[in-house]
Amino acid sequence: KDMAENREKYHLDAIIFGDEVVEHTLMTLVEFNEENAEYPLISEIDQEIKQKYGAGKWGIPKSMADRNAASWIATHKFVNDKLAIILEKAYKTCKEIAPELPFVSDDPMGGSRSSDLFAWRGKFDIATVQLYPGRNANLADFAFNAKKVKDLSAAVDFRPCAHVEHYAANFTLAETLALLSQAVIGGATGWHYYLADTIGTRKGKGFLTCEYFGAPERYELLYKVAEQTPALKFPEPDAACYFSLDSSWSKYGRNP
Q: Which of 25, 28, 83, 189 lies 20 to 30 angstroms, CA to CA, from 39?
């Protein structure tokens, strides 16, 4: 309500559910359980996971390094089910109070491997996800991950956070354009940029704050692309890929 009444004061154009909510919830739950397994709420959650998702046996992983696939699958299901309820409540609340403000989905880590994207359906106006190229401009995963998120979430307005800034590597203009083009091929209709100089921050030297100062030509390219991103018309699909959440969630870690 405060945001709706003070939209101009806050320069508010949208409301976002959060950043890496599933991954951080998983990590917090597992790490807290490792140190405080007897804490009443943790014991209650552990029992719910075992009974509802873990065949009465598999509960919260013992640590982030626990390699018990059944525990990770069960805990992923629990976290995603609970957060889908919260996402729906947040979306409905925002639409009741400030219907003119777009509500943006969670922003999962690269590949969105921890999120049940199907459970997002009908609970957002704009979908986003991080597209992470590693340190190899030749990897063609932007298109696949964009397509996966767009199709599973049924997003019409899809604006991924393409990490082409000084985050994973220092991409050339041609490499940057190629990566962004992949995302458009996969269904991106707009962009959510994160322009901080992450590499400079981690190294502790050569820090230039953001793309505006560190890579002005790339900064200009990013905004030109944002202004000119086409809305592609896709043919009706005649094939599909099977995506198994259980397989994805069976590997240990917050973003398997």
A: 83
